[in-house]
């Protein structure tokens, strides 16, 4: 299929991957690109619309071919954060501390961090080692914590600002963003065994020569993914620091215990610390009209009380001075897990005009500077074979999928939870929707 610079291209979704795709299409000189999203950009439900996201090169596999491809993708992303003038201002090289407590957690940590391959990594094995990283604020007992301090080439990015920067640059390059009711897709246009665009809530038909589905956790509502995607949610909270406290927490490395949770230094704009409790995720399992089981995302700016308990337990072990502070914001954040946590970036085998950029699997944001480049490669049919082998459309690995598979994640009850079982939610009072 021939794609030219003037081909009409329709992107469904203006979140992290949709925005990155729009940016790279603009950078390659495409002149007829439209992005549809039901929310004003940056999308309120995009996982990338956040203050902090971890930027590191951690692995999720111990298979040689998967490691090789993920290293290629991670290097491209990190190059973007550190050398691309568009993204460089939003990256903070604070370092990351990766840790665990149980023997199983430490074994998993050995896959994610390979100190023998990282020259600037040191072991952190005692509570005092953790406290020494930031003595003024890390005052906890760190019971049973062990791990590694990645001192450089790792840190965090201001996610929302980087996402907005990508969108604004794409607009400058001629990409058109259509939002609100006019951008709310209700169905793809299926014709002659192909996809020819989309229909929006206002009844408008958007025809396109190429359609790119980058709808994140909502992608499976538009296309039968053959159980390749499981929308999974995580939980986060913010704590507002007093103005006089903020300097104490500045340049704090990201503290991440893969069984407890993680937190960052406060963002400079609001002076809030973001904390996430670690767990294998929540689903919202429902039966479709045809009886098929699926997880259905929903928007909520509260978190389960059990999640609040875990957040405060993490703080009591690390920064006890904050453990009882009120939350200034809380949110459920959705992503789409594939069966092996590898991405789906491919041209659909049965719908030749449909390209997929889905399955971020809880690790997709760090690729904001570069993932669109790979998705545009898929549009141009030139994804390298070893990359395509890993990111291909692969319903074969999702046959008889186990919906409660933890996918190697730890924390909380060490199982995938479901929102139908949540008995009580927080009641965080926050009227500033710009934080979404």
UniProtKB/TrEMBL annotation:
Signal peptide: none annotated. Belongs to the MSOX/MTOX family. InterPro entries: FAD-dep_OxRdtase, FAD/NAD-bd_sf, MTOX. Its cofactor is FAD. The keyword Oxidoreductase applies. Keywords: FAD, Flavoprotein, Oxidoreductase. The keyword Flavoprotein applies. GO terms for molecular function: flavin adenine dinucleotide binding; saccharopine oxidase activity; sarcosine oxidase activity. PANTHER family: HYPOTHETICAL FRUCTOSYL AMINE:OXYGEN OXIDOREDUCTASE (EUROFUNG), PEROXISOMAL SARCOSINE OXIDASE. This is FAD dependent oxidoreductase. It comes from Aspergillus parasiticus. Residues 9-377 form the FAD dependent oxidoreductase domain.
